Amino acid sequence: MVELNERAPSPHSALDLWQLGGAFARIGQQDTAFGDRSAPFLIGIECNWEHEANDAASIAWGREVFDRLQPYATGGQYVNFPGLYEDNDAMVRGAFGQNLGRLTAIKKQYDPTNILRLNHNIALGQ
Q: Which segments constitute the Berberine/berberine-like domain (predicted)?
């Protein structure tokens, strides 16, 4: 992670390491919308830049970081770090896990016309 972070093509890019566990991990999987709480850490890939000329290098760096860290991942995702919606379905499944079916039913019950669809474009089965 240190080497990847040092190679970031922009001073606005960084890797964030969030320690989880503790009280966060003691919440039951069905108690909130957030699914899997088993990972001891969460990594945020902050891939930010200012100039269009840096698009290709910055996007390539973000994707390389994601690919290189993938072997250590649980497969879950956190919806605040969606990866520019490159695979929205995978993001939704990864974020909500086994809770997705329950959340889809609640969404259909309370928002049958999908009026609240701007929440990361998560239609939850609609």
A: 78-122
